[in-house]
Amino acid sequence: MRYITLSIIFTITLLVAFAFFFGPFGSFVLLVVAAGVIGHLFSLTKKLDSRIYELEKLQGIIKDDDYNLSNEEIEKELEQYIDEQNENK
What we know:
Blueprint: H1 2-22, H2 26-59, H3 71-88
């Protein structure tokens, strides 16, 4: 809750400062700067998310998507499973 209050106070302070320096266009400039910062943070978050996904995939935490297998791959896996079951009997 404290961070929300601090961010509101910081935004109001920035709005007053931008209005003082840029006049009537101050709030517009603040919105443009805020949109740029949010866009930059979003792109960084996406990059980090993709890097984490790749690391988890390398470590074996995430298994590959088996839902998009071709019919031949499914048949090959079934044959391997049947062969393993026959060997265990």
